[in-house]
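FAQ

Q: What does a record look like?
A: Structure on top, sequence underneath. For example:
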């Protein structure tokens, strides 16, 4: 019953790396826990580094697009980790909105 659903969910991955979709799911569950930003940055950097070394997708363009999205996510986590009392907070918020768009 679940096998066709899982095959459709994991079909974009190379056959050797079908387990990597679980890494994304686990990282999103962990990141939704309330934690300090520096811990979030460390987790995102670990996921990005493992992704960059493994490159789990079948097609090269999917690897490139996902790398760009993970870099954007890492930059957003870094920019929003700046304390709101800093004088550069307003510029950080503006840059964060630009990166999202």
């Amino acid at each position: 019953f679940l096998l066709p659903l899982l095959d459709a969910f994991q079909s974009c991955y190379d056959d050797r790396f079908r387990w990597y979709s679980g890494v994304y799911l686990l990282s999103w569950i962990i990141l939704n826990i309330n934690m300090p930003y520096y811990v979030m940055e460390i987790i995102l950097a670990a996921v990005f580094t493992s992704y960059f070394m493994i490159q789990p997708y079948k097609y090269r363009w999917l690897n490139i697009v996902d790398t760009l999205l993970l870099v954007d996510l890492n930059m957003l986590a870094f920019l929003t980790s700046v304390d709101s009392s800093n004088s550069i907070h307003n510029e950080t918020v503006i840059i964060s909105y630009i990166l999202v768009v």
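Q: Is there anything notable about this one?
A: The chain has a mean pLDDT of 77.
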